[in-house]
Prior knowledge:
The chain has helices at residues 25-38, 54-69, 81-89, 93-96, and strands at residues 2-8, 11-20, 41-52, 73-79. With 105 residues, the protein is an alpha/beta fold. The protein has a four-stranded mixed β-sheet, covered by helices on one side.
Amino acid sequence: MNFESQTKNGKCTAKAEGELTIYCAAAFGEKITECVNTAEAVELNLDKVEEIDTSCLQLLMQAKRACDASNKTFALTSVSPVIQDVLHLYGLDLFFGSDLNVVNR
């Protein structure tokens, strides 16, 4: 997993690439939590994610819920087909937003 983020004017813009699995869940959780804690809005690009498992899916859900509870914005700005498939499989399309920008297969 590669994770880059930048916070500017209260917005954390982040991008994750590679695999989001149990093997990197602790590091991913720390990085996404830092974004949530330091910004009023979080925009996460997942268009280069090749694999995701339930551990990291739960971390995404936790980050969104934390933002919702604090009246912050959380958005997935672009997702890979893998992410779209997993969100659909678990019925989380609407939880994360119905207007997800999916990168072509």
